[in-house]
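Notebook p. 47: complex prediction with protoporphyrin IX containing FE.
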Amino acid sequence: MDLQEAAGVFTDPRAYADEERFHAATAVLRRESPVHRVEADRYPAYWAITRYDDVMAIACDSEAWRNWPRTTVHQDPALPPPPIRTLVQMDAPDHPVYRRISADMFRPAGVRRLSDRIADLARRYVDRMAELGGECDFYADVAAHYPLYVILSLLGLPEEDFPLMLRLTQELFGADDPDFARSASGNEAASAAILDFFTYFQGLIADRRKNPADDLASVIANATPNGELIGELEAIGYYVLIATAGHDTTSAAISGGMHALLTHPDQWRRLRDDPSLVPTAVDEMIRWVSPVKHFMRTASKDTEIRGVPIPAGDAVLLSYPSANRDEDVFANPQTFDVGRTPNRHLGFGFGAHYCLGTHLARLEARALYAELVPRIRSIELAGPVEYVEALFVGGPKRVPIRYAMA
Ligand code: HEM
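Predicted complex, structure tokens below:
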């Protein structure tokens, strides 16, 4: 595979749905051109960063590398910015101020308060597998809904609105995938979904300002960053970020993790024989699937990476799935190992924007597998697994399984 073909994977949604092709391409880039200039035809030019150490160094230096104005490869800084502004679009000094608003809710102590509720939900979904009678689509029947219930419960949304949130999230993040998009154009589909989110959350802000409750939605609606009531756009951005980042990613880790277990039956048996491996298995699932495919940063001044000069204003794409298979950092990176230790994967990013939901995501995924593993007597794939065609956040969209439960 030549370098141009290899670099094409970052703007080809179908490449992310074909793991073998994606990982073969990024292995070539890591080896031959780890700081690679991509002149894509659909999106403005950028540099693809594929090695672990470089992704980490850029993520750690948020002075030199800014999140604004381009957070994903889709965005064209020459066009008007998206109507909402979220944490991931912010830099200092705003970013730490807005991050602090919800930080307490996501710290280990804040998240532990939810552990009973999460364990209940995990049981509900494993019971559901039992009710489905030995065959289901693990993505559609379990993984797509369970994290959504967790995060929307934390936000405090009513359960009857959950299906709407699920549909809008799939449309937003799966906008490049023909199964989820509303229209032929990915960008148009995403804009339509953003508008619907906007209307919904405007209503929620008004309500929680009038009737504050003990939920994250009220914390956000009534926050006073810099001493003044949060702006409507910032509050909406916060809700959208949490309602979306909080579940599609975890769904992908859980369902992609199941796919990995079933294509590595020795690892499934190892986990079944020793469920104390669930925590390391979950982190290995996150490394293996890397549900967030990339974020971008923009150079605030002339700089260089590995001796390659990068002028101020140029954008870099941090490839988390590639960094997580870096041969210089992980022993046997192409091996799925449920007991992998250490496992310093970059699936949650690093630095100032390090994922806010890490404790919640781990708690959720661990609770589900801790419930599921001991209750399964046998399990296998019942058909082809398919991955969503998406450039930003993705994982399986179909995981047909056949199983017998204890
Ligand atoms: C396995 C599941 C998850 C994965 C793989 C994941 C991954 C990521 C990544 C890669 C970033 C960007 C980090 C960076 O720029 O350095 C991020 C940011 C973020 N994540 Fe997650 N995430 C997951 C679950 C969650 C959950 C459950 C929440 C709950 C609300 C969440 C909320 C956020 C937020 C709010 C940010 C933005 C933080 C900021 O910009 O300061 N994530 N996540």
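Notes: Residues 59, 87-88, 99, 151, 241-242, 245-246, 249-250, 253, 286, 291-292, 295, 320, 347-351, 353-357, 360-361 surround protoporphyrin IX containing FE (CB under 6 Å). The chain has one domain: 3-32+45-67+92-405.
Next step: compare against the earlier run before touching the bench.
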